């Protein structure tokens, strides 16, 4: 999704989450069903993630969106135990992959993740801590928020905290180490949660399937607080260490870097989670990085 220039950024962001886009996406899915397609893989880049997660956003009354109703519910979220005959015409969302996503951390943890997770059990975020495009997005959105500009509902928390002064609006493609459910805020840690974009736990549905469970039995970490976090049930791929075929912005390596391309191919073709894929090394929480030598190492 084209984000325009600095002065048109917020306008492009608003346009990305319009009802018209939702209707077009719905028509696309209906066309796929009519063509006999059953399995769907969804992949989006940068601001396009705002459109992707926007189509899964719940209606104002809390019911599922029309796009969400096109997909079978994940078994962990199918509380009504729908019959096979009822779901025969529904699509199966095999994977959702978000590449350098330009989406706020607060809104993602608060509601966007859970809306997408109940339709897909295999969600991946590919990010880079040095993504310069997302840094400027954090800055520009922070300025717009400080000046009181409105933003689409999908990009806002359901209950916005009153904040004083200016601050960056963290994006999940750059601040992916914040994709967890923080503990209940106390007088001791509430200031830290605000500073890091943390979200109170009562804002998420209490379903254990929302939380990451694929951590290996042996974790090389001494940070007890880190080990005790309730990480969201998704795979975060940290590409910060990649240094070949990476442009200066570090925002669009997915179509030129062979390591990343090979991993995306394995993700879609085999359907394996990050823990089972051959090129990834588990780091901590729900985060992985690529196991490879840097470019300056020669045989």
Question: What does this entry look like structurally?
Answer:
The protein has 299 residues and is α/β, with parallel strands linked by helices. It is built from eight helices and eight strands; from the N terminus they run ααβαβαβαβααββαββ. The strands form two sheets. It has a six-stranded mixed sheet with strand order 1-2-3-6-8-7. Strand 2, helix 4 (105-117) and strand 3 (123-127) form a beta-alpha-beta unit. The longest helix has 16 residues, at 19-34. It is globular and about 55 Å long. The relative contact order is 0.13.
Key terms for this structure?
alpha/beta; 299 residues; two-stranded antiparallel sheet
Order of helices and strands: HHEHEHEHEHHEEHEE
* Average pLDDT metric: 82
**What would you call the shape?**
globular
Total strands: 8
Query: What's the gyration radius in Å?
Result: 19 Å
Rounded to the nearest angstrom, the distance between the terminal CA atoms is 41 Å
Helix content: 25-40%
Individual helix count: 8
* Strand-residue proportion: 5-15%
Output the structural class. alpha/beta
Oligomer: single chain
Unreliable parts: 185-205
Largest sheet: 6 strands, mixed
| Main sheet strand line-up | 1-2-3-6-8-7
